[in-house]
Structures are given as C-alpha cells and as structure tokens.
Amino acid sequence: MDGNFNDNDLDKVVSADKAHVWHHLTQHKPFETSDPRVIIEGKDMRVWDQNGKEYIDSVSGGVWTVNVGYGRESIAKAVHDQLMKLCYFAQSAGSIPGSLFAEKLISKMPGMSRVYYTNSGSEANEKVFKLVRQISHKKYDGKKYKILFRDRDYHGGTLATMSAGGQDERVMQYGPLAPGFVRVPHCMEYRKHELGLEHLSGAEFGRAAADLIEDVILKEGPETVGLLCLEPVTAGGGVITPPEGYWERVQEICKKYDILLHIDEVVCGVGRTGTKWFGYQHYDIKPDFVTMAKGVASGYAAIACMVATEEVFDLFKDNPDDKLNHFRDISTFGGCTAGPAAALENMRIIEDEGLLENCTAMGDRMKANLDALMEKHGVIGDVRGKGLFLGAELVKDRDTKEPVAEKDVMAVVADCGAQGVIIGAANRSIPDRNNVLCFSPALIATADDIDAITDAVDRALTKVFG
Fold it and tell me: One Pfam family name from the record (predicted)?
C-alpha cells in the first residue's frame, strides 16, 4: 500500500467516516464500539484497508463494477484530459466523448441504435418505464401500461424500480409501491419444484417456465401489458442462468402480445459473462431496450446508459408539431463528460487485452474449482453462472434443498474476509433464500487469483460447516 497517509491521517479519516458517512446497506449500530472498514487503495485485483490489510477482491468493488481492475492510469488520464477540456454540459447538447462512446457502444450491439445517458442503473431502468408509459398514451390510449418483472430479479432502488423488484426484503417498509407493476415467476431449474415443474428438465422446463409468464399476461389482460423487464442472468437474486429454451419462448410470447422487451444489463453488461459484450447476446435475444451501468466505465467515473432501437426512438419524433411528443426527461449528471471518456478507454482495454476471452477462460476455471468444492462439501447444492459471474447455493440437505441460514452464509463471507479474500453473498434480499455465495472477479483475473479465492472458500466452508 502507498505510504501517502500516515497513521494520524488515517485515524482522522476513520473518525470522519464514523461520525459523518451513512454507508449503503449497512446497520451502523456496531460502529458505536468498532470502526467501519475504510478502503484506502486498490491495484489490479487487490485492495487495502486503513489497517494495511490486503484483500483479493472477488466482487469487483463490492457490487460487480471494477471490471478491468484497480489503478488503470490510462483511464484516469482520459478522465483528467476530458475534464480539463470540458467537464460538463447538459445532455440537451452533445459532447465529443458522449458522441464517440455512443457510436462505439452501438457497434457492439447489433439491432440497437440510440444511447440515452443517465446517472445510475436504477435511473436507466426508470427511463425505460417512463418511455413505456408514454408509448402507452401515444399508441394505446394509455391502456397498455403494465410492466412485468420477474421474481428474484433486481432493477434498482428508486420507488419505481423497487416496484419492479423481485426481492421482497429489498422493498419491505418502503410501500405503498407504485401501481402497474406485476410479478412473473422465476426460471431457476434448481428450484423448479417451487414452480410445480419438477417433472420437467432442460428445454421442456425452460419453455414451461416461460409459459408461466404467458399465464400472468392472460390473467392481467394482454391489452394492458406494455413491457417485460428481465435480467439476462439474475444477479443478486441468486446468480440464476436461464434454462435452455427459455429465452426463445419468452420472445415468442412478447411478439404474440405486442409487448416490448427490456433487458437489464446493469450487472452483466460490458463483458461480465465472457465471450460476448452483453449477457443477452449469449441467448440470441432481440430486445427493444437495454440498460447498463456498473461495468461501463469500471467505476472510474459515473455513467449509465439506456439503449433503444431506432423503432422506439422514431416514436418520439413522428409528430414534431406536438410539444408533448418527445421524451421529456433529463438526468443532470448524464451530461458529465468523464463517464463516456472513461467508458471509451475501458472498452479499449477490454478489446486490446483480450479480456472477454480471459473472462471465459477464468470463468471456466472458477466453475471447475467450485464444482470440485461441491464434491467435497455436501453443503453446496448447486453451482451456476456464466463467465466470471458465478454463484454457489448452500443447502442443509441436497435432497430437500432446504437453504442454510443466512447467518451461516455470512459467516463464510466473514471467514474469507479474515483470510484476505472478499467474496459476496445474497443477503437481506429474499426471505429464507439468502443462501448463495456470489463471485464476480475482475476480468483481468489470473489462474492464481481464481485458485486463491476458491481455496479461501474451501477453508471457510470447512470452518463453518465442518
């Protein structure tokens, strides 16, 4: 760790944090008698806290964000140079990095056409919801306004995106939620018995799981449903990869009932799933909207994007004489130029260093390591994921699939942390289903990094479960 701060300086930092910072997703009562962790520095896949303790970061900044690793001087320089030239102008006008990154991004997304810059993944998703409601008024007399979302999927922390949230513990105490949002069942084959589909497997299960969406549409009335919003791979809800046949059937259903399809790539986007730039591209999905945030600039600057087809875009310029016809929306910090400047350099690094391919290779290695741990530890009931986006579900009994207690999952996380390895877990999200360890190392991960992470998990599982 760099020696720029002496102990007294760090003591002041920790004191200031403890006295004034309100941390995300954190109960602060324990900080009355202990200090919060303050991360001081990062390099490649490692970070250091205020005590000088080194950690391997297997969750890319804690929330699947730092895809190209810490300490990228070329991204910092790109941001610096752009800020000195122009830091900001409202997105009602264009900018050099905004224009160039939009062109670069669309070149990676055949079938998509327009990029709308916004402040966060939550807000990008909210833009889609607003567009769908406006389309409902423009084309369907306001009747086709309902938005379908999937059990276990997560789309953000604003009131509307929470209303489209399939993780009940995330929305408890925040109601009443916004009307017009309707849940559809999850598609997790490991827990197909929860759907009454335990007699099916493979593509038969996948199509049947998608048919459950059609059942909801018919119950609600197809003439009232405007959008289906799904993650390509469910993230915080348990790292759930879609079963074979699922996405083909989902698209058939959307086409049949004239329902727009929104793919939330806030977690999966920009290389996380390996080989392809976006998760949806593994499944031949042709969306109307794609949203993204976390990995777009690897956390070096704030940026989120809502991407739409030209067909959607054209709906908002078909009558220029109508002063209400265009998309009447603004995101203040969508006009910051640092985000697209960082995103351009982030994408160049991924291309030039072959990180999509490395993500696939290292993801295969991590999957194999976790599969080996499943052979060794009966508490692992399932291992799943794609690329460097993986989950291990912990159960008390493999036959009944009864989840282990959330406190035991967090004990594994804590023990890995004590070993100097930061891992993630589904927690405080789904009642009685917060039992999945989550892994999303940076795309730069080496074989040694992957082995160190899974070795720590091995030791932690032995300590916690025997």
Answer: Aminotran_3
